Amino acid sequence: MKRALLRGLCWRVDVIKSVLLALGTVLNDAKDSLKQVWAHMRRRGPSQIQFWFIALLIGIAAGLAAVLFRYGILLLQTKIYGVEDVTKLHSFAANLPWYWVLTIPMIGGVAVGIILHHFTSDGRVRSVADVIEGAALNEGRVEKKAGVASALSSMITLGTGGSTGREGPVVHIAAMISSWLSNLIRADGITGRDLLGCAVAAAVSASFNAPIAGALFALEVVLRHFAVHAFAPIVIASVAGTVINRLAFGDTAEFALPGTTALEFYAELPAYLILGLVCGLVAVTLMRCVFWADDMESRLQSRLGLPYWIRPAFAGALLGLLAIWFPHIIGVGYETTSAALTGKLLLHEAIVFAMIKVAAVAITMGGRMGGGIFSPSLMIGALTGLAFGLIATSVFPEISGSHTLYALAGMGAVAAAVLGAPISTTLIVFELTGDWQTGLAVMVSVSLSTALASRLVDRSFFLTQLERRNIHLAAGPQAYLLAMFRVAGVMRKVEDGLDEDACWEMISEGIYVDGNATLEAALPIFDKFGVDFIPVVTLSGEGQAPELWGALYHVDALKAYNRALATTAAEEHS
Length: 574
Fold this sequence. Notes:
The chain is mainly alpha-helical. The chain is built from 24 helices and 4 strands. It has helices spanning 2-44, 48-81, 89-93, 98-119, 128-137, 145-159, 167-184, 189-208, 211-223, 228-249, 269-304, 310-325, 334-341, 347-366, 374-395, 403-419, 422-433, 439-456, 461-468, 477-480, 487-490, 500-508, 519-529, 554-572, and strands at 492-493, 513-514, 533-538, 547-553. 49% of the residues are buried. Helix 23 (519-529) links the parallel strand 2 (513-514) and strand 3. The longest helix is centred in the first third of the chain and has 43 residues, at 2-44.
C-alpha cells in the first residue's frame, strides 16, 4: 500500500516536473520570439498589423494623458478658487473678494515663470506649433524636458485663471509620448510622423470627445497631408482616445444647445457669408493682438533686462486686474461660451466680452503663461456670432432663424481661421454641440473666414508662429526642405580632388558658404554668381582667415533637394 502511494506520488512529481519543463521551454521560446520581433521591429520598423496595435496603445496612453491633464486643471481650480462646479467658475469668482481674484493669477504667473526659467532655454511654452515643426523637420520628434515643463506650466496657468485653452498642451504632451516610443523603436521619419499623428488624434479626441475631428485634426493641422497609409492607425488611436474620455466623463457633448436649429429660408445664407468674413477679420485681430503683445513684452523685457520668470508674473497681475471687473475671462471659458450658444447674453454683453477675451488671451500668451488658443477662439467666435445674429435677426426678422445658430456658425468660423483647419474645425463644432442639423450655415461661414484669414496671416496661427521664428512651413515642403540639409553633409571634401586654387580665388572674391549653413542659404549664391560650385569654409572668428572644408556643387545640392521632394511626395501619396 505504501509502495503504491509512493509510486503514485513519484509519478505525480515527475508529471509536474515535465509540465514545468515544458512550460519553461514554451516561455523561453516565447521570450526568444519576442526578442526577435522586437529586434526586427527596431531594425525594419513595425509591420502594418503591429503598427495598428501600437496605434491602439499610443491612443490609450495619449487619451489617459489628456484626461489626467484635464483632471489636474479641475483639481487646481477647485482647490484654489474653492468652487465646487468648475463649469460655473466665472460666476463663482464674481463673488470672491477682489484681492483673491487679483492675487491668484499673479501667483500662478510666478510659479510658471520659475518653472520655465529653470527648465527651458528661452522661457517659452511648447505647444502645437512645436509639434508641427517636429513633424516636418525632426522626424516626428519634439522636445521632452521643455515639454514637461510646458505641460506643468499650462496646467498651473489654466488652474489659476489664465485665459487660454487646454488643447495646445495636450497635443504637445501626446507628441512627447510618441517621441519617446519613436526613439525606443528607432522609427524612421515616416513611422515617427505616423506615431505622432496617432498621439495627436487621440489627445484631441480625448480632450473634446470628438473622434472624427481628432483624426482629421492630426492629418490636416499636424501632418498636413491625408496619406492613406496613415489614416487607419490614426483613426484607431482617435477612437481609443474617445473611449478613454467617455469612460472618464461620460458620453456627453461639451456644449448643450437649447434645441434643434435650422435655416428658416435659403435667403438667409448670404448673412452667413457675411458672418464668415466678419469672423475672418476677428480671427486675424485675435492672432495679431497675441503677436503684438508678445513682441511688446519681449522688447520691454530686453530693454529692462528682466529675467524670464518676471514676464508671466506681470501677465498674471494684468489678468487678475482685468478679472476683477470681467471674471468671464478666467480659465477656458466654457460657461460664457455656453451662454452665447444658448442666447443668454445681450448684444452689448457679447461685444464687450469678445473684446475683453481677445485682450485677456493676448496678455496670457504674450506673457508666455501657457495654454492653447483653440478654446479661446471658440469662445470669441461664439460671442461674435451671437452679436452678429442678434443684429441680423432684428433687421430681417421675417426671414431669420435663431440667433443661436449664428453663434454656432461664428464659433466654427473664428476657430477654423485661427487654426487654419476648416475641415476638422467644422466637424469638431458638430461634435462639441451634438447638433448635426446646421452643417450648411457652419460650412459657409467657415469657408469664407478661413479663405480671408489665410491671406492676411501665414495660413494659420501656428504657421505664423513658426514663420516668426524663421521656420518656413506655410509654403509647403518645397520651401522648408532646403533648411533640413547642412552644406557640410552634401559638399565634396578637399581630399576628393578639388581644385583648391580655384576655391581660394573664389573665396578672395567673397564667393563662399559656411559649412554650418543650410542649402536654403547656399542655393541663392549659385543663382547670384552663376557658378557650378561654391567653396565651403569654416569661419573661426572675426579677423581670422577662413579654413577650406570642401566645395558644394550645384548638381549635388539639387540632387539632395530632389530626393527629399520625392520622398515627401511618396509619403503623402502612399
